[in-house]
């Protein structure tokens, strides 16, 4: 089998296995989105009602929202000028922490939720560690190189930094030292050195991270065990430079966007393109995945919010938000345990210890003095008299020792004579156990119906047969 036939067979198998994903399986019910504009205003949008529920901040052309983060009901917003805003969207309480940076802020991430400790990076290469509980204390050190983007990994306590003219580097936050530096790719076909043009970076796991390069239309995945990239993918059909990249929480999909409305999804498992997410007409500034990796949300300079399904790439929501957006943050729906903690760890079924004892009594044939008899259409009084006569005859038979001599047919003949009805002797009936056992029903095999064809055969009419335009 040649390569073309193998690729054709692989695409056929993939379409056949993913045919069940044609329907949308994700619902935006209960989700909210925090939007940060380019002029310093923060909005909260409810996806179920498609309405703005809260707004905070005053418009300022120089106060662009650089980063957004959340702990509980507190939202942390970083402004380009060096201010960090803390806002509780339930109590409407706000707090402002001003940081004197010589240049703009290029990275922000929370380290500890209890102490509200966070890490900051500046464009000149400075790294600061601060907290809202103790704003006077600060740990500062320099990387001695410019920083365009910084991403922190909480599992390994390391952060990666990139710049347009420098190689990606990984630093240890505890030792405050560089522990890894990437090696440049080989020379191109003209034997010219390929310049570093990294625009965005994101961690896949504690040992690997992915970067996107502008001007080369490449995706590169690095591993800390070696300095060369373990994978390079040139996106030839992408017209504009890729400037943002976001992997899904399960690392099975990677979303990326450019400045001309191009929105793509890449699958790193088979090193192939999953497809393009259409109906976007402006530059995308931020992308976020939901926690279950079933939907991806994007916003940008076209004043719209897009919600796409992961599998079929359909646009679920397209909401007009009235302002140019720069950052995005997803608030998942609150669980009932968070709303009412008393319902936590409560069993759905009430367990009773006496149920097991009653089940054993019923299995052994012991009753508590209550006889559940089935009426066959006779009066209650007649049934009681017949039962008493039957009990007396059985007792007499036991005393005389005639139980073993009587056959099953004779027992049932006596019962029919007393009740005045004809009954059939079923299998499994003995003198000691006169209750018949039911035969298990035989399941009939289901006949498979022939599948109907998707195409309907339409017969030609006489007029259509005669016409020349058929």
Strand coverage percent: 25-35%
Write down how many β-strands occur, each being a DSSP E stretch of 2 or more residues: 28
Biggest beta sheet attributes: 4 strands, antiparallel
Unreliable runs? 335-386, 393-406, 421-431
With helices defined by DSSP (H or I, 4 residues minimum), what is the helix count? 6
* Strand order across the largest sheet: 3-2-1-28
Mean pLDDT: 76
Shape field: globular
The whole-angstrom Rg is: 37 Å
- Helical/strand content category: alpha+beta
How far apart the termini lie comes to 42 Å
What share of the residues lie within helices? 10-25%
List the helices and strands and how they pair.
Blueprint lengths: L2 H15 L14 E6 L4 E5 L4 E6 L8 E7 L2 E6 L3 E6 L5 E5 L6 E8 L4 E6 L3 E6 L7 E4 L6 E5 L4 E6 L2 E7 L4 E5 L16 E8 L2 E6 L4 E6 L7 E4 L7 E6 L6 E5 L4 E5 L4 E5 L7 E6 L5 E6 L3 E6 L5 E6 L4 E7 L4 H4 L14 H11 L15 H21 L7 H12 L42 H5 L4
Antiparallel strand pairs: 1-2, 1-28, 2-3, 4-5, 5-6, 6-7, 8-9, 9-10, 10-11, 12-13, 13-14, 14-15, 16-17, 17-18, 18-19, 20-21, 21-22, 22-23, 24-25, 25-26, 26-27
């Amino acid at each position: 089998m040649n390569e073309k036939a193998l690729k054709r067979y692989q695409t056929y198998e993939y379409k056949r296995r993913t045919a069940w994903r044609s329907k949308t399986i994700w619902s935006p019910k209960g989700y909210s989105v925090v939007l940060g504009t380019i002029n310093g205003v923060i909005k909260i949008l409810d996806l179920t009602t498609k309405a703005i529920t809260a707004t905070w901040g005053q418009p300022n052309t120089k106060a662009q929202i650089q980063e957004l983060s959340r702990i509980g009901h507190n939202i942390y917003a970083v402004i380009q000028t060096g201010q960090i805003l803390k806002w509780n969207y339930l109590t409407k309480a706000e707090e402002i922490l001003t940081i004197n940076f010589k240049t703009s802020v290029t990275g922000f991430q929370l380290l500890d939720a209890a102490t509200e400790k966070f890490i900051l990076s500046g464009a000149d290469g400075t790294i600061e560690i601060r907290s809202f509980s103790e704003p006077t204390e600060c740990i500062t050190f320099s990387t001695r190189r410019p920083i365009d983007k910084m991403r922190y990994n909480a599992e390994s306590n390391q952060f990666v930094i990139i710049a347009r003219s420098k190689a990606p580097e990984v630093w240890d936050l505890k030792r405050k030292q560089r522990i890894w530096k990437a090696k440049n790719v080989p020379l191109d076909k003209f034997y010219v050195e390929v310049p570093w043009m990294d625009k965005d970076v994101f961690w896949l796991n504690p040992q690997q991270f992915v970067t996107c390069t502008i001007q080369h239309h490449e995706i590169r995945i690095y591993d800390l065990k070696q300095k060369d990239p373990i994978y390079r993918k040139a996106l030839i059909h992408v017209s504009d430079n890729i400037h943002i990249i976001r992997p899904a929480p399960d690392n099975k999909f990677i979303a990326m966007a450019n400045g001309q409305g191009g929105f793509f999804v890449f699958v790193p498992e088979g090193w192939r393109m999953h497809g393009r997410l259409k109906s976007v007409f402006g530059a995308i500034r931020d992308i976020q995945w939901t926690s279950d990796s079933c939907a991806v949300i994007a916003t940008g300079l076209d004043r719209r919010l897009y919600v796409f399904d992961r599998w079929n790439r359909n646009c679920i929501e397209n909401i007009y938000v009235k302002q140019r957006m720069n950052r995005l943050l997803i608030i998942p729906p609150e669980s009932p345990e968070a709303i009412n903690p008393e319902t936590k760890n409560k069993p759905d079924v009430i367990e009773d210890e006496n149920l097991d004892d009653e089940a054993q009594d019923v299995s052994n044939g012991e009753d508590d003095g209550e006889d559940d008899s089935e009426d066959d259409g006779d009066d209650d009084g007649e049934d009681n008299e017949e039962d008493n006569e039957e009990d007396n005859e059985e007792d007499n038979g036991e005393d005389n020792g005639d139980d073993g001599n009587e056959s099953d047919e004779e027992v049932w003949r006596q019962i029919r004579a007393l009740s005045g009805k004809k009954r059939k002797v079923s299998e499994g009936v003995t003198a000691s156990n006169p209750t018949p056992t039911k035969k298990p029903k035989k399941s009939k095999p289901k006949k498979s119906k022939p599948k109907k064809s998707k195409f309907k055969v339409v017969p030609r009419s006489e007029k259509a047969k005669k016409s020349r335009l058929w």
